[in-house]
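writing this on my phone so excuse typos. first protein, seq and then structure
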Amino acid sequence: MALTHSSNMASRLQAVQSKIFEGLSATPPVSRSLCIATLVGWLLSLTEFYGYIALTPAFVVPPHIYIWTFFTAAFAEPRFITAVVCAMSILMIGKFIEPLWGGKELARFISIVNVGTNVATFLVIVLAFRLYGEEQLIYAHCGGLIGVLAGSSVVFKQLTPEYSVNMLVVSVRTKHFPSAIILLCLLLAVFRISPPQDVLFVWFGIVTSWVYLRFFQPREGSRGDLGDVFSLASFFPEAVQPAVNKVSTSIYGLLQSVHIVPPWPTNNSNTMSQQQAGSLLYTIGTGPTAFRPVVPAAVSSSQSQIMTAATPIPIGDAKPVDAERRRQLALKALDMRLGLDPNEQGDNQV
């Protein structure tokens, strides 16, 4: 009986191991590397090397100057469950994003969000130490991939804002992902389930991701996504969006005057209209998927048929150029059916 039980256990472990390796082999290379790095970082976090890869504000400044921890801190995760969740999340996110962007752009995005999040968190912790004088703030080890994962939620808000994802008993549109993640992280911190540093990682991960995607991500002949649907105000409830838009526009003008952000294009209104309409058409994957289109009530039945008939982008073997070409063709088809005026002007929103 004992031998039979041991044999069944060994066969189950082999089955799980084969599924893990099968999933890794079917994952794009950059996402697969990040997943492996996360698990390796968890192993190192159990050893004395944890202090050399985690972000410790007191060790970033002289005499230690562990400047590399701004990058390696993302993989310094001593909590096993969190490390596994982060690794699985990276696999799922990379499966959708890497075929669309390419491995090089995904690696650049993750690097920028990772380093930007850690630098901003470091500055806030140092400021808090200056204000309150508690040394435990600057000697606490910080790390984890949660900031990058929160930043990745902004990508889904950009690409498929009107899609709905079933989460347990609720259905959440992807455009609400960043807000939902911030709220969840705040609740976990209040009940002391997660450390308070995670709130900083999540907040700065979302902000860094939006700034890069909004103003700096390379595109064909331009940079950034200046669509109305991706404005800063779109992250807030509709009741406060006008006020947020006024404040963000003023801040943008100040940053643009000192050449921190690029100037606003004068002929971008039609592009914004296309991106806003195209976000309803943008489908990811073929066959069963967690994403389902949610057609707004104001959309007519003919428009709904267009969105349903939109050519999906195959994830397994699609190249970024092909994905963009199919998206542009779908946008043109939608413009023709909706009768959009190419000379139509709109309000710029930062």
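second protein below, same order as before
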Amino acid sequence: ALSCYILAHNHSLYVPEKVRRSMPSICCSGDSLEVVDDGRRRVQVQVKEPKLTRHLATNIRITRPYVQRKPGRSPDEHEGELPLGILLTGGEKLRAEGLTGNGIKVAVIDSGVDDTHPGFHGKVVQQQWFRWGTPLSDDDHGTHVAGTIHMMAPDAELYDYRVFGEEAGFDVDEAIAVAIVEAVFDGCHVINMSLGGRWPSLNIRTAVQYAESNGVIVVCAAGNEGDDDPLTNERGYPALWPEAISVAAVGKAEGFPVAKFSSSNPQVDYSGIGVDVTSFKPGGGLQQMSGTSMACPHVAGLIAALLSDERLVFEPGSKKDDFVREHLEKYHVVDIEKIGPDNATGIGFLTYLDKDEYEELISRFLTVSVTI
């Protein structure tokens, strides 16, 4: 499908060398796609995909997410242990119960992932870069995001779709839209988009609707435009659309205080740890970042782990997005901030832990509530 789109619109696409070597050859004609695999078998596939319109470069609406960075780990974390954000979201308990994301594919639509980082254990299985040219040491956001997903669901396969970089075959908005469509065709179960912009894009909206209609769970960062006032609304897309799960950021402290930068609006669905989050750094090692970009992969990783539970049975005719939301709200939400849903944290903080378990963790690691 992506090849049809590229040929039709005269686009170029960068694919890392090791990925190119493993790709089958592709030919496109009209509405059919011919794939020739390594065994030289030819398969005709009828292509039906959403109609995407062209935008000029001056219409770019999405920019690199702004996050706050610190080196290394938090003082409350120790070498060899899972980061506290992962623990508070239930990552350790999920592993103990065998819910590791096995058989689940997660798309990371971001600034690119350093698949050579030893922490990934070979779980970055595919890379398609629609923009490039900036070293990952500078575009470190995607590696950090993917690291959190991997630590939440260590057996899930990660699909890296790079949509930020100084060089390009696509405008940023267009790259994001095509990456979403490609993730659907690649069979991804969850899409993580720790990105956003104030103005909506028709192409991205069409792609998000297409993903949701195909049973893909789309998880988005709510945005970092917050003014510490839940009565004012800060809008950000694609999180604002109903087909996406919008995730706000809270801190690692008693009561899960809302991060001051976290955008608030009636479309916020849930909240996750987004302050001083420890995850992977390109080239190896760890670093801390703060932003709703960091809260989002905690939730995406939790969902990936839950989807690997064979006990989950989808009701015939039900929408997968609705089923997942109902399951989360029934079993995995902690009501924080105000009683009931609120604009700052949505329905509440998502975790696999019960109340006693997360309160014990907080009392062991943290005693002072601090937000930024």
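The two ends are 43 Å apart (CA to CA). thats all i got for now
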